[in-house]
Design brief:
The protein is an alpha/beta fold and 394 residues long. Helices cover 39% and strands 22% of the residues. α6 runs parallel beside α7, α8 runs antiparallel to α9 and α9 crosses α14. It is built from 14 helices and 15 strands. Strands 1, 2, 3, 4, 5, 6, 7, 8 and 9 form a 9-stranded mixed beta sheet that branches. It has 2 domains: 170 residues, VC0802-like; 210 residues, HUPs (Rossmann fold). Bound molecules: adenosine-5'-triphosphate and magnesium ion. Magnesium ion binds next to loops.
Length: 394
């Protein structure tokens, strides 16, 4: 019989709140498994055990897809498919001899290791390690035993119900369980950075919603569809996503007609933040998330960021603030948003861009510029263009 073992990470540190985090994690695992089949999902000693029930348990049709489905759940640091053996030495040896040779023969060296979580088990870890290692070595003499730096480790874990035998774990998605950190509103553009920022906050347990600003006819339908595609790609991690769109056309035209060019971008970004805050309040989001990175462009100097967020009451989370572009690109490739992000469609931030933007703006000057506009009226009418859709995992 096979099962999936999932180990959690930081959750272990959660002390009294641990049950709460654990429950969220188990819910998420159960949700992901629902479309695949019937599984028992239980948690013991910082490990979640996923076992198929009511079917032939060795059924590849069930265990492999299940393994794939739980592979990117946040809150899990490592996972593996393990063979279950009754808790006696003969059975453990028999199962190891049946299933492990094909695994270790893929490598040049191996070792056996053991973990005895059930302290009543009559053999020590060293006994188990030596016995199982010796038997496997006899069966596969061509694979060298290397206890210091083996290419693969056969692990025997003696736990509550069974002994679990597996050949190495894969890395899990890490982070904190879905929904453990409240809701956040991601300002999602069509660029490389903001989808990565959304992914990173989702990884920390935030339920991410998106807000996209467009500026039709200066931005196109195709540009909007590109951003929707990016949001859909994030649904691989978030399952669903509320996607909000607001039109900035009127605001941008008012800025263009009344303000000095060097301030265009900053004034626009202040409008964006104000509108984001309204959308966040309406949706009970407790933070605003952006893909800003210090010094990346003129509007992301420390002074510019100060002006952008001035007067906003919600925390503005900027997970990429200290990231180099290269590192952001690496993550965007990993989460499969890069190819979509680099499609060259226009964004409202690139409409009416100043030739010489201010990098050390002063709040007083910004206020003077904004006094030329009917800010409240512009905000109210932009907010009326709010359009919402729910996106789902494909
Ligand atoms: P990205 O940062 O996503 O690669 P970008 O670098 O072109 O795109 P910037 O102009 O640097 O975007 O904007 C910084 C941040 O402001 C973005 O990461 C995003 O959070 C937000 N933002 C920019 N344009 C938009 C937009 N049209 N709609 C929503 N948010 C936006
Ligand atoms: Mg950027």
């Amino acid at each position: 019989m096979r099962c999936i073992l999932l180990k959690y990470g930081e959750l272990i540190l959660k002390g009294l709140n641990r049950n709460y985090f654990e429950k969220l994690l188990l819910n998420q695992i159960r949700n992901r498994l629902k479309p695949i089949g019937k599984f028992e999902v239980v948690s013991m000693q910082s490990t979640v055990y996923v076992t198929p029930v009511g079917n032939d348990c060795d059924d590849d049709m069930l265990i492999e897809p299940a393994f794939k489905a739980v592979g990117n759940i946040f809150g899990i640091v490592s996972l593996c498919i393990a063979y279950c053996a009754p808790k006696d030495m003969d059975s453990i040896i028999a199962v190891a001899k049946q299933y492990m040779p094909q695994e270790i023969r893929k490598y040049k060296s191996f070792k056996a290791d053991a973990k005895r979580c059930d302290k009543k088990f009559p053999y020590t870890s060293v006994d188990i390690m030596k016995t199982v290692g010796g038997e496997l070595n006899e069966l596969c003499p061509e694979v060298k035993v290397d206890v210091v730096n083996p290419e693969i480790t056969v692990m025997v874990e003696i736990r509550d119900r069974y002994a679990y035998i597996h050949a190495g774990s894969c890395e899990g998605a890490g982070g904190m369980p879905k929904s453990s950190s409240g809701k956040g509103l991601l300002l999602l553009s069509g660029g490389i950075d903001s989808p990565v920022a959304g992914f990173m906050m989702a990884k920390r347990g935030v339920d991410v919603q998106a807000l996209h600003f467009e500026s039709y006819p200066y931005t196109s339908e195709r540009a909007r569809n590109k951003v929707i595609e990016l949001a859909r790609k994030l649904c691989v991690y978030t399952d669903t996503m509320k996607f909000n769109i607001i039109s900035l056309t009127e605001i941008q035209e008012a800025i263009r007609d009344n303000c000095d060019e060097e301030y265009f971008t900053l004034i626009l970004r202040r409008f964006m933040m104000e509108l984001a805050q309204r959308v966040a309040f309406r949706n009970k989001c407790a933070s605003i998330i952006t893909g800003e990175s210090l010094g990346q462009v003129a509007s992301q100097t420390m002074h510019a960021l100060g002006v952008t967020g001035e007067g906003i009451r919600l925390p503005i989370l900027r997970p990429l603030i200290a990231f180099d572009k290269e590192d952001i690109v690496k993550i965007s490739r990993k989460i499969d948003t890069f190819e979509t992000s680099v499609q060259p469609y226009e964004d409202c931030c690139t409409v009416f861009t100043p030739r010489h933007p201010k990098t050390r703006p002063e709040m007083e000057k910004i206020r003077e510029q904004e006094s030329r506009l009917d800010r409240q009226k512009l905000l109210d009418s932009a907010f009326e263009t709010l359009n919402t859709m729910i996106l789902e995992r494909e």
